[in-house]
Amino acid sequence: MPERRPDPEQLLERLRRKEERERRAKLKIFFGAAAGVGKTYAMLQEAHERRSAGVDVVSGVIETHGREETQRLLEGLERLPRHAIDYRGTRLEEFDLDAALARRPALILVDELAHTNAPGSRHAKRWQDIEELLGAGIDVYTTLNVQHVDSLNDVVAQITGVTVRETVPDSVLDRADEIELVDLPPDDLLQRLREGKVYVPAQAEAALREFFRKGNLIALRELALRRTAERVDAEMESYRREEGIAEPWAVRERILVCVGDPESGLRLVRAARRMVSGLRAEWIVAHVETPAELRWPRERRDYIVDVMGFAQDFGAEPVILQGIRVADEILAFARRRNVSRIVVGKPDRPRWRRILQGSLVETLVQQSREIDVYVIRGEPDGESPEREAIPAPAARWTHYLQALGVVAVATGIASLMYGHFELTNLVMVYLLGVMVVALWLGRAPSVWAAVLSVAAFDFGFVPPRYSFAVSDTEYFVTFAVMLGVALALSTLAHWLRLQTEAARQRERRTAALYRLGRELAAVGTLDQLLTTAVRMIGEEFDARASVLLPIDEGGRLALRAGELPSQHERHEIGVAQWAFDNARPAGAGTDTLPAAHGLYMPLRGSGGPIGVIGLGARRPNEGLRPEQFRFLETLANQVAVAVERGRLADQAESARVQIESERLKNTLLSSVSHDFRTPLAVITGAATSLLNRDGLGPAARDDLAATIAEESQRLSRQVNDLLDMTRLEAGSVEVRKEWHSLEEVVGAALQRLGPALAGREVRVDVSAAPFVPLDDVLIGQVLFNLVDNALKYTPAQSPIEVRASRDAGGATIEVADRGPGLPAGTEQRIFDKFYRGSGNADSRGVGLGLAICRGIVQAHGGRIEAANRPGGGAAFRFWLPIEGEPPVIEPEETEGREERPVPGAAP
């Protein structure tokens, strides 16, 4: 038999799960059948063993109940002080969660997992405190009795006759890394109770008469053993999976529990949980939301939310579907998720209603084919006796009066038609009225209108008239058909109305998502993105929205957009911080910090939470409807994607800028080091020769001195070019426009070039634009650079031309030569920083002259370009805007005129 090679993907997955288990904090539960079996004692014993092994162990909260042996075991352990809370004049002491998080031990002992915290605490239940400790990386030891397990709550109530109010979701037990059963036979436990080792004598006598009867203890012990056995079985399955042991079947059991009626939802979920535990199956609790539910009372919709949250605490995956036909949606979802069993509640409607309106159970059984359907009753609900029965939605009595009015109008129209049309045409009028009522008022009023229409037609138009007596029995067939058609029309119109409402809801949400996506894609910065998101979400929910983002590496949140829904800003930010740290919703309408004034939803990115979006509650303690909550989650996910995309874009832009800066820096260093080294080498060589004085005549010394002066001026121009480019990019160059004679500006630039123009023909023709508003110092520098560039890149005897022309909006100045021209494709690149031409030209220079020209011209509001001339050579043209008319020329006064340094000119 060939050796079966392990799947590499499975090996990697097993390693990943193993690393995840080793990395996360550990939870160990000491589990027992009842109080007094020794759970706390066993926990303290193991804590001392861990402390002896060098583990940092701290006692967070231990309830000794006056037991001396438990009190003695506490000695030697560091204890955290308790947090005092004043509630209605009573001082209550609770576990100090903040102190535990600040102390941050390796292991903390927290007794009584099912304990309910005092009002005003951060969490309603102690198991929620423990979840936060685990999230902070702190190992936890705790204790739990079997009667506090949520899925067994109703079973315990049936056995003992006592309804336990404090329960722990099964998901907390499933998350535990280890469960240790602390077992004690019932007789031994009863003996400890009589000896006063469990409760004080007065409480012990009452406990013996009620909860601690021997039969109850036997049943509770069996429940604890069974629950522990299920845990052991689950650990065995996990071990087989991790070790790569093949499963006997490739497909796992998956159960779909269908919750429709809020009244029976809790019973159905509890019963299904026990079924799931026995089968070790995945399970999903689903509710199909139809358009008709939009008209349910708010408390009825809230009860559905409670049931789904209850199922999630049990470890189920809650799913809310949307559709018109419940059975079709359930079957489609079941096939899509590969469900093997569907669990529904036993129908409690009268048989005649199931015949007329259809039965969900019968439809599922008939159409499920390969999927098994289980119909169960569930156990009596013992958790919420104080909750009153929620009435089913019913049509208002005014709707029936309106339906009566429609029938009366139809009767009036039929009376006008009587004698001119056949009776069958009068029936059409009534059918039209029934359809109007169905579309307008709903199904029940339309059925009422159908019955009234038949009665009105019989009384008013069937012989003998104005009597319910019928002369011809054939009219009974007419009445039956008329009633049947009217009921069919009302049903079809009712479904059409529901589909229209559902389509309208989908269209509204789709349009909102589209608008949000379009708006977020159009904005440029992160602040604009957040402002847009806050505005659109606030408009959609008619509430104040806000976005909070972390401002430091520790994840501390701060408001970035919108406004918080309360004046108590610190408290609201604290709620948002908890939602961010734990990646779970918190605030109004949730189980965590429900007294907050806003709901806070984490923005989940690819690497975890990246922020929090807040939404103010319209009224205190009022949350969102299920469909609104899901819609807010969808919007929050879209905002999170946009925020993450914006951050990635910012990071990419920063990286690009950094790369570009590094490239420019390297180019600058390369250019500067080369171009500075050349004149410095010449200056150093000439100066060294002058210092030696050996064999140098007066003429040679004069040449060397001239060389030093020339190279010093050249070096000075290069330094000034760098400084001027820096000033232009920083925007610190101030342009002072005045009307100037262009001929004088050109002449001053040519004069500065001095000896460099010796032997060159320079043709100047600027008569077309004698006066131009410009900064003569800056534009003089542009002309200097352009003519100097022409001198360097053209033959010695070729002419240089400076011309000007005028158009409606400004003046164009051109510097042209008859040199080799520009290489193809470089007409724009030559204005980039550090770009230099090639060929026979004198390539000395940093490559900033033309870049400075472009910066000065753009600062004037103009533009500059370069092109090759017909017949050879290059032409550089820059355009300057002209506004207004030149002033009258007056004699020039030079006294007091401010002198400014010329960019790029030697001092």
Distance between the termini: 94 Å
pLDDT < 50 stretches: 245-251, 379-393, 894-907
How much strand content do the residues show? Answer: 15-25%
E-strand count: 25
> Which secondary-structure class do the elements indicate?
alpha/beta
Total number of helices:
26
In short:
The chain has 907 residues and is α/β, with parallel strands linked by helices.
Characterize the structure shown.
The N and C termini lie far apart (94 Å). It is flat, with a radius of gyration of 44 Å. The strands form six sheets. The chain has a six-stranded parallel beta sheet with strand order 3-2-6-7-1-8, with helices on both faces. A five-stranded parallel beta sheet has the order 11-10-9-12-13, with helices on both faces. Helix 17 runs parallel beside helix 19 (474-522) and helix 25 (776-793) runs antiparallel to helix 26 (849-859). The protein has 26 helices and 25 strands. With 907 residues, the protein is of the alpha/beta class. It is 50% helix and 15% strand. The longest helix has 67 residues, at 626-692. The relative contact order is 0.04. Helix 11 (262-279) links the parallel strand 9 and strand 10.
Secondary structure layout:
Blueprint: H1 8-23, E1 27-32, H2 39-52, E2 57-61, H3 68-73, E3 78-79, E4 83-87, E5 90-94, H4 97-103, E6 107-110, H5 126-135, E7 139-145, H6 153-160, H7 170-175, E8 178-181, H8 186-194, H9 201-209, H10 214-242, E9 254-258, H11 262-279, E10 282-289, H12 298-313, E11 317-322, H13 326-336, E12 341-345, H14 351-357, H15 360-367, E13 372-376, H16 397-417, H17 423-441, H18 443-461, H19 474-522, H20 526-541, E14 545-550, E15 557-562, H21 569-582, E16 586-587, E17 598-605, E18 608-616, H22 626-692, H23 698-730, E19 738-741, H24 742-753, E20 762-765, E21 771-774, H25 776-793, E22 800-806, E23 810-817, H26 849-859, E24 863-868, E25 874-881
Parallel strand pairs: 1-7, 1-8, 2-3, 2-6, 6-7, 9-10, 9-12, 10-11, 12-13, 20-22
Antiparallel strand pairs: 4-5, 14-15, 14-18, 16-17, 17-18, 19-21, 22-23, 23-25, 24-25
Helix pairs in contact: 11-12, 13-15, 16-17, 16-18, 17-18, 17-19, 18-19, 19-20, 19-22, 20-22, 22-23, 23-26, 24-25, 25-26
